[in-house]
């Protein structure tokens, strides 16, 4: 006679495996020095789970108390909260239940642009608009503007955030993200058509929103003496950073001292370089306090690389525990990169130089040679869209705008091999922080997304460099002279080859 087995007789381990098929195990992570680090979640907005998947987990938890407890981490390890009445109410309910809040490891705060006082006359703007804007409901925007004012004036967000940070005793990763729905984008696009006229009626400010969010979340984390150690902001505003520099020094020192990972990508704004120079002393104060930092990224818009010395931000500081470092869209001298790398040659395992342009009298070959010969621990290097400054300017001369590339996006050819699952003591669950999530492997075009990728033919195609062997299959030992650096431009095939050469892989026979 056969024995019937019900789900209730299954072991917890088997039930967790079943949950894994519905929603990936939230307690898996990527090591901090892997190339996949700093990409999957730090710069990617949290995607809500498909409706059926969320319903399946909810149904699973309704079976019995045991199932409910097993399903909690799959629902509450990651919390994404919108700056809205309903979003804050939901967060308030979650952190009112300690058995739920204790599972939260990552908190994403989704912030919309703020309506500027006196410039929220959406109904008047839409009445005079043509085309697709007629389908927009003015009351939707009016309710949104009113809700924003109510939340800020009542300090309801301050109350709920402080309560949440106190409740999230296992919090490890905090993320601030800009939120725009389709209706917002339509409205902003229309305002951009004639900002002088339409901006008098409606003005949406990301600077105000980012500043308010940064202050309130920073105060809440400091008030709770939070356990968090990672912060990422893929669309940070320079003015918000300037306003934070006026915060209480003790709070900044505490928050910086907690950090093991910091990823900041500044959005494009007027006088960005001047604002970075104004922030120089603040960067120094923060980085001197950030003694536990292991992964660090500072980036600017790809369409407008910033010419500012590396040490204006990093101040010749030696980060004793630094294992992964990245910069994006900087115009630099070769010796700046070499100097920073040399300071960290005994600890640095990953180096990311995305959209970095070398200035006149600098050569990439000098950077590559130093990395290959002197970086003792280096395991990977990312050179996506590197070039020379003069060539970049010549390519885009006379164009309306250089396409920006989102801070997420990967150039890791071997990224999949780095998705290692680690124990809790090595990395927190659910925080797969990566710098590179759109790998070249996933791209349909073998390109660095230059002008041709955007259907803008500004220069003729450059022939690909011929791969050459540097391993035992060939007696030819490649040197830096064989890399083909002409000091004028870099093509996609070259930088792929250079990445492998720097870490000692054979460009022809080495793994992809």
Overview of the structural elements:
This protein is α/β, with parallel strands linked by helices and 512 residues long. The chain is built from 20 helices and 15 strands. Helix 2 runs antiparallel to helix 3, helix 8 (156-167) crosses helix 11 (206-224) and helix 13 crosses helix 15.
What brief labels describe this structure?
512 residues; 9-stranded parallel beta sheet; 20 helices; globular
Number of DSSP strands? 15
Helix content: 25-40%
Low-confidence stretches: 36-47, 405-467
Distance between the termini: 55 Å
Structural class: alpha/beta
Indicate the proportion of strand residues: 5-15%
Shape: globular
Number of helices: 20
Q: What is the average of the pLDDT values?
A: 76
Major beta-sheet overview: 9 strands, parallel
Strand line-up in the sheet with most strands: 1-2-4-6-7-8-10-12-14
Oligomer: single chain
- How many whole angstroms does the radius of gyration measure? 25 Å
């Amino acid at each position: 006679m056969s024995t019937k087995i019900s789900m209730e007789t299954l072991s917890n381990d088997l039930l967790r495996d079943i949950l894994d098929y519905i929603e990936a195990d939230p307690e898996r992570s990527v090591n901090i020095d892997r190339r996949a680090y700093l990409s999957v979640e730090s710069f990617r907005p949290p995607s809500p789970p498909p409706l059926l998947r969320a319903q399946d987990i909810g149904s699973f938890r309704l079976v019995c108390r045991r199932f409910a407890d097993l399903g909690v981490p799959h629902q509450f390890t990651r919390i994404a909260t919108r700056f809205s009445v309903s979003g804050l109410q939901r967060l308030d309910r979650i952190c009112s239940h300690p058995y739920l809040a204790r599972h939260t490891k990552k908190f994403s705060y989704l912030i919309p642009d703020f309506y500027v006082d006196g410039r929220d006359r959406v109904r008047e703007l839409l009445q005079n608009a043509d085309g697709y804007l007629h389908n927009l409901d003015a009351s939707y925007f009016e309710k949104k503007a009113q809700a924003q004012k109510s939340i800020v004036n009542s300090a309801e967000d301050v109350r709920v955030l402080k309560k949440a940070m106190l409740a999230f005793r296992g919090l490890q990763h905090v993320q601030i993200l800009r939120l725009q729905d389709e209706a917002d984008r339509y409205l902003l696009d229309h305002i951009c058509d004639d900002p002088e006229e339409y901006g008098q009626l409606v003005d949406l400010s990301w600077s105000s929103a980012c500043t308010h969010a940064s202050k309130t979340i920073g105060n809440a984390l400091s008030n709770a003496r939070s356990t968090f150690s990672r912060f990422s902001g893929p669309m940070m505003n320079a003015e918000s950073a300037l306003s934070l520099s006026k915060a209480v020094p003790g709070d900044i020192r505490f928050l910086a001292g907690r950090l093991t990972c910091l990823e900041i990508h500044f959005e494009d704004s007027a006088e960005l370089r001047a604002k970075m120079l104004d922030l120089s002393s603040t960067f120094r104060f923060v980085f001197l306090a950030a003694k536990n930092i292991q992964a660090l990224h500072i980036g600017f818009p790809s369409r407008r690389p910033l010419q500012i010395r590396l040490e204006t931000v990093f101040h010749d500081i030696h980060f004793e525990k630094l294992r992964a470092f990245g910069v994006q869209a900087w115009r630099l001298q070769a010796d700046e990169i070499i100097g920073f790398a040399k300071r960290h040659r005994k600890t640095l395992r990953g180096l990311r130089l995305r959209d970095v342009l070398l200035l006149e009298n600098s050569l990439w070959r000098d950077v590559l040679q130093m990395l290959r010969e002197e970086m003792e621990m280096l395991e990977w290097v990312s050179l996506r869209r590197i070039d020379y400054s003069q060539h970049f300017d010549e390519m885009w001369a006379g164009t309306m705008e250089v396409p920006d590339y989102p801070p997420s996006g990967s150039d890791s050819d071997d990224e999949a091999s780095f998705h290692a699952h680690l124990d809790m003591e090595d990395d927190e669950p659910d925080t797969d922080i990566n710098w590179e999530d759109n790998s070249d492997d996933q791209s349909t075009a073998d390109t660095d997304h230059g002008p041709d990728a955007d259907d803008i033919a500004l220069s003729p195609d450059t022939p690909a460099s011929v791969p050459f062997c540097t391993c035992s299959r060939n007696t030819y030992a490649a040197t830096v002279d064989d890399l083909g650096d002409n000091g004028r431009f870099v093509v996609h095939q070259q930088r792929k080859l250079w990445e492998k050469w720097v870490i000692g892989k054979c460009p022809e026979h080495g793994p992809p």
